[in-house]
Specification:
- The chain is built from seven helices and eleven strands.
- α1 crosses α3.
- β10 and β11 form a beta hairpin.
- Strands 1, 2, 3, 4, 5, 8 and 9 form a seven-stranded mixed β-sheet that branches. The chain has a four-stranded antiparallel β-sheet with strand order 7-6-10-11, with no helix packed on it.
- Helix content is about 25%, strand content about 30%.
Length: about 250
Amino acid sequence: MNVREAAASLLATVSERSPLSEDWPGLDVDTAYAIQDEALRLRRARGETLVGLKLGLTSRAKQQRMGIDSPLLAWLTDAMVLPAGVPVPPLIHPRAEPELVFVLGRRLAGPGVTAATALAAVDRVYGGIEVIDSRYADYRFTLPDAIADNGSSAYFGVGPVGLQPSSLDLSLEAALLEVDGQIVDTATGAAVQGHPAEALALAANALGARGLALEPGWLVLTGGMTDAVPLRPGSRVAAHFSNLGSITLSG
């Protein structure tokens, strides 16, 4: 299997499959990002538009479970945007998690980006929900598997309230995660690399190492604030933020 074959295989998967690494012994992170980039090329060739980037595995607890010390990056396209009121399309085993979402006002290129310079490039901050959906059976995968699968990306929704970052203490911005009327988890922005601006800086520097940059107008999903919860058919998941309003998705 080569990079192009792996990307096409993952894009064609509509039900659970074995981890890519079982068919590709020695699959490493650099090759996994090459697969991810090839999958993006194929998506753009079929008409999708690149709209931004997401970070995954940004919480310390998730990193410890995976045995890593840094998040992963993945691409966002317009086909992944879920308009308000539209149910999440059928997926394999979807899960939902609340996120803080940045909209960039200017280009952000590494290396050397700090949390302060990253935050200065942000135009607005929103609350959001990401729906993840690994193609691998039982969410069982290595880090390269997850990267190749575009960070288990599926869909995301962005809430109605956008504020300038200077008007918020993002480390203390809280989210309550509600499932079918019951609060099941809560967290603050500090759960995301200590501060979501640290996640943004990390993304800019990691892209810079690959000769890429975050572009004006891009959305950046900074990572799940809580653990992801299953999104079952007919269920409703809502995220209620301290200052950024609420957003609800239905299965």
